[in-house]
Write a structure and sequence with these properties.
The chain is mainly alpha-helical. It has 20 helices and no strands. The two termini are 14 Å apart. Keywords: Acetylation, Cell membrane, Glycoprotein, Membrane, Sugar transport, Transmembrane, Transmembrane helix, Transport. Pfam families: Sugar_tr.
């Protein structure tokens, strides 16, 4: 059976755009929001901890115990993220990609209620438990959203849509910081509301996401439901059911010839941006222009140079008057470098280089390493800073350098390639056969997919 010409499935349809926005806002936005939500009201929350302890015991909590409680509160989020990453595989295999995102909102709505009621209930334990639960939510969503969008998108839009979750994480952080101003919600009365607002995107996702299709690749390959997969793909392509768009490895219903009419009138252009609050990240456009590999190399090498120069600047800041300005510049440059590649690209790479059968396990491993690293750095870095002082960032410079070298020699470019083409690239690198008959996803696909896509 033949695939439709690739021109049928190259433009962003309205349904695909809305699915991307709902999935990213409902999940990735929460992730960023909860990263920053506790920063601004921290002093009021610590006072709440102290007052609660005093009401229970008649004594004020000592400084060490208060610091420990707050550290536990903060660290519960990345620890929950680690646990959430471990749940990704079983959840996406049993509930599907969309089903997992819907189920995951339990870990947002329930803790939002807990945090909103914690002051009234006079129980700071509810906040600590809730931080763990929203961490699980972030751990699941940070892996499943890129997987879901990567399987919905055509190959030429996979990169652009794959970095949208990172944009919403950034927006979530910004919104939390804006709402965390003292005259808004970061005050004695408003901080429970600030924490509870994480339920808003979750509720919207629960209401809206059911109207969007499940990943057709999941339905076809893992659920063996070709009819549902065809219907879902036809909706995403805004095309008639019997003219399924050219989706990697997805046979058409009626096996039309290459000369068949192209239903271009059914495709719509990307919607206009609705807000200019944040500058649109360059990655949304650049990732399909420059490719994944170049952005990774540029990002990690920039981070390496920023860490190296920052180390020198910190070492000389007491002897050279203008070195503090160099330090500030290095931090800004590091953030830019991190946003170019290390932040948005790894999840996209995981989506592209692994086949359907191994993709959930790959996200579990990648997500676990990510969140465990966050937890470890937050726990250990204060001690590293005491021990190494100005040379603390040498460790991160070495990691960035080694990653740059690894990327240069090992990671191929995956831009505008089908999953099977990418599989063949790695097969060639490892000098093995790229098409494995025992792989169900490769059995289903025509052997000439790469030529037609």
């Amino acid at each position: 059976m033949l695939l439709d010409p690739p021109s049928l499935w190259q433009r962003l349809t309205l349904l695909l755009a809305l699915a991307t926005l709902i999935a990213s806002f409902g999940s990735s936005f929460q992730y960023g929001y909860n990263v920053a939500a506790v920063n601004s009201p921290s002093e009021f929350m610590k006072q709440f901890y102290n007052d609660t302890y005093s009401d229970r015991t008649g004594e004020l909590i000592d400084t060490f115990a208060l610091t420990l409680l707050w550290s536990v509160t903060v660290s519960m989020f990345p620890f929950g993220g680690f646990i959430g990453s471990l749940l990704v595989g079983p959840l996406v295999n049993n509930l599907g990609r969309k089903g997992t995102l819907l189920f995951n909102n339990i870990f947002s709505i329930v803790p939002a209620i807990f945090m909103g009621c914690s002051k009234i209930a006079k129980a700071f334990e509810l906040i600590i438990i809730s931080r763990f639960l929203v961490g699980i939510c972030a751990g699941v969503s940070s892996n499943v959203v890129p997987m879901y969008l990567g399987e919905l998108a055509p190959k030429n839009l996979r990169g652009a849509l794959g970095v949208v979750p990172q944009l919403f994480i950034t927006i979530g952080i910004l919104v939390a910081q804006l709402l965390g101003l003292r005259n808004i919600l970061a005050n004695e009365e408003g901080w429970p509301i600030l924490l509870a607002l994480t339920a808003v995107p979750a509720v919207l996702q629960v209401l809206l996401l059911p109207f969007f299709p499940e990943s057709p690749r999941y339905l076809l390959i893992q659920k063996k439901n070709e009819e549902a997969a065809r219907n879902g793909k036809a909706r995403l392509c805004a095309a008639p059911r019997k003219r399924v768009c050219g989706w990697p490895g997805f046979p058409t219903a009626a096996a039309p010839s290459r000369g068949a009419a192209r239903p271009g009138r059914h495709l719509v252009a990307p919607p206009e941006p609705t807000s200019s609050l944040l500058q649109t990240p360059l990655q949304v456009f650049v990732v399909e222009l420059w490719g994944r590999r170049r952005l990774l190399l540029l990002g990690f090498s920039t981070c390496f140079m920023a860490c190296a120069v920052l180390t020198v600047a910190l070492a000389l800041q007491d002897t050279v008057s203008w070195m503090p300005y160099v330090s500030i510049a290095c931090v800004i440059i590091y953030v830019i470098g991190h946003a170019l590649g290390p932040s948005p690209i790894p999840a996209l790479i995981i989506t592209e280089i692994f086949l359907q059968s191994s993709r959930p396990a790959a996200f579990m491993i990648g997500g676990s390493v990510h969140w465990l690293s966050n937890f470890t750095v937050g726990l250990v870095f204060p001690f590293i800073q005491v021990g190494l002082g100005a040379y603390s960032f040498i460790i991160f410079a070495i990691i960035c350098l080694l990653t740059t070298i690894y990327t240069f020699f090992i990671i191929p470019e995956t831009k505008s390639k089908t999953f099977i083409e990418i599989n063949q690239i790695f097969a060639n690198l490892n000098k093995v056969s790229g098409i494995h008959p025992e792989k169900e996803e490769l059995k289903t696909f025509p052997s000439d997919t790469s030529k037609q896509q």
